[in-house]
From TrEMBL:
Keywords: NADP, Oxidoreductase. It comes from the Bacteria. Gene3D superfamilies: Aldehyde Dehydrogenase, Chain A, domain 1 (3.40.605.10), Aldehyde Dehydrogenase, Chain A, domain 2 (3.40.309.10). The keyword Oxidoreductase applies. Its EC number is 1.2.1.16, 1.2.1.20, 1.2.1.79. This is Succinate-semialdehyde dehydrogenase/glutarate-semialdehyde dehydrogenase. Belongs to the aldehyde dehydrogenase family. Pfam families: Aldedh. It is an enzyme of class 1 (oxidoreductase). The lineage of its organism: Bacteria, Pseudomonadati, Gemmatimonadota, Longimicrobiia, Longimicrobiales. The keyword Signal does not apply. It comes from Longimicrobium terrae. One of its GO terms (molecular function) is succinate-semialdehyde dehydrogenase (NADP+) activity. Residues 3-451 form the Aldehyde dehydrogenase domain.
Amino acid sequence: MPIATISPVTGETLRTFDALTPEQIEQKLQRAANAFRSHRRTSMAERAERMRRAGEILEADKDRLGRLMTTEMGKTLASAVAEVEKCAWVCRHYAEHAAGMLAPRPVDVGKARGEIHFLPLGAVLAIMPWNFPLWQVFRFAAPALMAGNVGLLKHASNVPQSALAIEDVFARAGFAEGVFQTLLIGSDAVGGLLDDPRVAAATLTGSTPAGQSVAERAGRNLKKTVLELGGSDPFIVMPSADLRAAARTAAKARCINNGQSCIAAKRFIVHQDAADEFERHFVREMEALRVGDPMQDGVDIGPLATASIRDEVDEQVRRSVEAGARLVTGGKRMDGPGFFYPPTILADIPESAPAYREEVFGPVALLFRATDVDDAIRLANDSDFGLGSSVWTTDEGERARFVTEIEAGMTFVNAMVSSDPRLPFGGVKQSGYGRELAEFGIHEFVNVKSVWIQETPPDDHPAAE
């Protein structure tokens, strides 16, 4: 895949970039190694000052950066600007809280002094997708850099300008040269980076096959990885729910980011007593969404990021209908230039249909009917994925069962799933492992070191292993 900005609105190639040569990659790796030796010795106060400055730069430059993301991958301008603001938030969050998260923790070990220290690992390779070009990176980079690590970014090939803009933000914020570097490279160069001893760990957000490939290569090198992979999140609606509110949120949850989000709600599991009414509200909400130029005010859904993504979504819908799914609304490619696809609802989906098992990465909602709570949980868990989940009920007993029995890394009650710097983010099953954000995220890429300090000669010794 060429490293290029290709407009999803017109299909026109706007700018191309040459991939780094092996010699240039070597220079950046050595620069990262050198930077780590000095960055790890900086004080938390110094790091926090620079991270706060990064947040200020993002806020001041949010309109330009938002337009850049919209140009490269087609999200609406309003959502792109909001994404930049969220990146500023995560910078501020870790600037404020990282010192406490990483402070040595005392442990009572008797007459000696026990402590747990959290120390940086080195250069962390981040392999990131195009759907949230800034947020996916900053939610890794803010905690990683605050922990004393340095970052190497291999971004998706269709958002090179966004990738370079991120490096520029950290440089302008005062982080030393080499602390955060963008590598304009193809996926074929990732294996060599994982093999290099100067790369200490890796994090990937992307598809399950990509995660398997990175985990296998990193595993051979005994390197830590965090994987945030695909999702087919359930959105469960029970009879006690406010069905109008649930339907409004359902349309937003399915079509956020033009339907291209791992944590977008994808499978809508509705109790049979509420199914007909919910479907009427849901169809009305989906059909009211406006598809068009993402730079224009009032547009709810822009184009899909690439022609191949649009074609894959269209193929999944077509084959699912052929397998017996009922097409409720949408489902036909839109005429004209660009990679647009309309809000679509499929219902009565047989297990043989592609949409039943596969993640559909576009504005396509899948409607299922459940007979009771047990059936809703069964349907929710009948997936290879386990990232997020949303449940709508006012019944405390149902709520407790959903929270404890749904196989997912996140459950939101009467709300759509979202990422928040204060909460850990990640999944189970084929949605990956490890966590980003919150204290759990900053601890993923540190050496959790046990320290035993004996102030006076001991009378005896702790038992050996």
